Amino acid sequence: RRALGSLGKSRAKFISAEESTGVTFDDFAGQEYIKRELQEIVRILKNDEEFQDKGIYSPKGVLLYGPPGTGKTLLAKAIAGEAGLPFFAANGTDFVEMFVGVAASRVKDLFASARSFAPSIIFIDEIDAIGSKRGGPDIGGGGAEREQGLLQILTELDGFKVSTSQVLIIGATNRLDILDPALLRKGRFDKIIRVGLPSKDGRLAILKVHARNKYFNSEEEKEALLQEIAELTEDFTGAELQNILNEAGILTARKDLDNIGREELLEALKRQKGTFETGQEDSKEIPDELKLRLAYREAAVAVLACYFPDPYRPFSKTDINSIRSQPNMQYTENPGRVFSRKSDYVNSIVRACAPRVIEEEMFGVDNMCWIASKATLEASKLAEFLVLQTGMTAFGKAYYRKQGDLVPNLAAKLEALRDEYMRYAVDKCSSVLREYHSAVETITDILLDKGEITAAEIWDIYNKAPRIQQPAVNQVDEYGALIYAGRWGIHGITLPG
Ligand code: ADP
User: Fold this and answer.
1) Is 298 a catalytic residue?
2) Who has the most CB within 10 Å: 95, 158, 191, 249?
């Protein structure tokens, strides 16, 4: 067998190479359809010649996209493990260096290494770091260097023939929307698979995978406990679920017990929720001022959720028992989801502004803290997506793609348009919060008093609250969403012939 060991050390420090990952599809739970699709690719990789005779080829590239911690790396390793192929991994951020020419030469190194061991698998995590759109707003800087790296990836993808000596390249990203469209063309990343947050059944299956090597009092108790945790972990990723079980194991050992019990699991769950971003050791002792801020935040989110109900994700309850930089409001998934209209996007942006707006309103612009950060980030990402990607505003995707490089200052204009949506959303959000100020206060009081509040109670307060009429903000279309800024020419931008 060929030794891969030397590779990691000598030539290319940024590549991690494994002769065999040892990971199988059994290690990934939930979202069975993903495994089915990938299993097919593995079958083709394994019996390459047989399939080629029938004219069936493996795709050149597979792109896995979805939130961090949902198992994309795990799936890539499982493909390598199942097909019995060596695995070459790099991170997109490793390609982006300040030195000119490094990105392209690192891409070359990676492909050359993988090819010398072909058939093999290349995995590029966070491929968006190098593969983001050309000619778009240069958000992270280093645009020219990144572009060289991206061009090199395209060259490499186009350069090899699909044959027995093939290299399968797997990319992972949580930002499909910012990837350069050239990467997604036929013959490049031609298989795009979404890896989403697990459903309740999926969460149970994931918990079972990670409970394999853990001890419980009995099979029945284990089943019941994991079921309970699965119910309590809406919006959790596989990585977070794994952490809960590990943490529970540590707590059990600390208490000198042999078997994990309910108490340890619930404590681990609480820690996972509370310490997720703050690093705070114990979420039990939330300082009073932070509690007040959390209560206002949740109340504001609740009022906005009533004002612009999300047709696809009705909210169920919220609490102030854990500290996160995103709202604690819990939602239930509506399986009937079909598609989102412009109004849904715009309303989501307005809703996502609530934590930031209420922080500023109640505590003052110089006295804000971090508890609005996740939601604010989400708002601006959504606004950017709406403007750049959806074709639903003045500069839709089709237009952008065709003319993007030709129009001077287009990036600046698109950013200005995004900022206008943000400004509208902030205005609208603060006008709603002022109109329903009394509901905000009532919900805040209940949260401070009881620690939590249900959707039914929130709706009741919202419907009965006295409202303070606010002057209308901007213009609104028939769906109650904005027209403002959405029509051709409003900004005095002249469109090219
Ligand atoms: P990503 O690459 O999407 O950020 P990872 O593959 O690094 O996520 O996930 C981190 C860890 O979380 C995995 O190694 C695995 O232990 C666990 N995990 C995540 N999703 C799943 C899943 N669906 N089934 C089993 N384990 C999972």
Assistant:
1) yes
2) 95
